[in-house]
Write a structure and sequence with these properties.
304 residues; alpha+beta; OB fold (Dihydrolipoamide Acetyltransferase, E2P); 5-stranded antiparallel β-sheet; 5-stranded mixed beta barrel; 15 strands; 25% helix; elongated
Length: 304
């Protein structure tokens, strides 16, 4: 088992009486738990679990002390150079919660890097080997452990930092976030810097891009431009953009009419993307091959 402590504080005119609005504090406290869990998941995956305890609310601005308790399964050795006993301290060092001027050993903390990059992406990332990488922006560069880069790239980590730093500093009268050690501020983020800690917007990632032919019944149709039709393929309901201009022309000219049970045989373009809000599917009917009326007749075999 590994233990390490850190102390943070929020400062500003609204906190001079050492109190803080619970609606601001509660999400931030939850954010610390998320941050430690997310960082631990990047560094150790399933080999360890963490707990974070609030130790005390201390005097001075609005100051909170935490204790991180890290348990390893099967006595797994830390992924860092240190033994298991120092793993929790190393985790905090990578984040910037247990450092001096943003630096631990020869490494650079995640918070230090975010302040350096100022919301930008590095111009270049170079693999140096031996689990080290070089981040370069303009003429400046830093050589950092690969694990630090992985934590920096983690979406859950960045989401937690937004809850801890960005959201509280939006509140009137809250002007700074600080990490303190033995009463001394070792790292701070002021209101003008807080925007850099917002979770980056990720581009949509295309997972599937296919064209297929299928049969659909019409659940609802739309005659306004860009409105989507709701179609049913016998198992799923989809919302589809109709891109077949000739078919739309015939519908607008009342050359095509629809009744219950009609079936459209269509060529469909399906694009599935992973977005910040989850999986998103986009259907486009590129061509209506056939319109089959809903009224069916009993088939008979006629002799020529």
């Amino acid at each position: 088992m590994s233990k390490a402590s850190f102390t943070i504080a929020y400062d500003g005119p609204a906190l001079r009486d050492h109190s803080m609005d619970v609606r601001t504090l509660a999400p931030a406290l939850m954010g610390f738990g998320q941050l430690i869990d997310a960082t631990n998941a990047v560094l150790h995956k399933d080999s360890s679990q963490t707990k974070i305890h609030v130790k005390a609310l201390e005097a001075g601005s609005f100051q909170v002390s935490f204790e991180v308790i890290q348990s390893f399964y099967e006595q797994v050795v830390s992924l860092f150079s240190g033994p298991e006993a120092s793993a929790a301290a190393n985790l905090l060092g990578i984040l910037g919660f247990s450092v001096k001027d943003g630096i631990i050993g020869t490494g650079i903390s995640v918070i230090f890097l975010i302040k350096w990059l100022r919301g930008r992406n590095p111009d270049n990332v170079k693999d140096l080997g031996s689990d080290m990488v070089r981040l370069q922006f303009g003429e400046e560069y830093y050589d950092i452990p690969l694990n630090t880069l992985r934590v920096l790239q983690s979406v859950p980590v960045r989401d937690a930092l937004q809850k801890i730093i960005v959201d509280p500093l939006k509140q009137e009268g809250v002007e700074a976030f600080e990490v303190r050690e033995k009463g001394r501020t070792i790292l701070s983020v002021d209101r003008t810097e807080a925007v850099w800690f917002s979770k980056p917007e990720l581009p949509d990632e295309v997972l599937v891009d296919v064209r297929l032919r299928g049969a659909f019944t019409i659940l609802s149709l739309a005659f306004k431009e860009d409105n989507k039709w709701r179609l049913y393929d016998g198992a799923n309901t989809i919302s589809a953009t109709i891109a077949d201009e000739d078919f739309i022309r015939r519908v607008d000219a009342s050359e095509a009419s629809f009744s219950k049970g009609d079936v459209l045989i269509c060529d469909v373009h399906l694009v599935q993307k992973r977005t910040d809000s989850g999986l998103k599917s986009e259907y486009t009917v590129e061509q209506v091959i056939e319109h089959i009326p809903g009224v069916r007749q009993i088939p008979l075999n006629f002799t020529p």
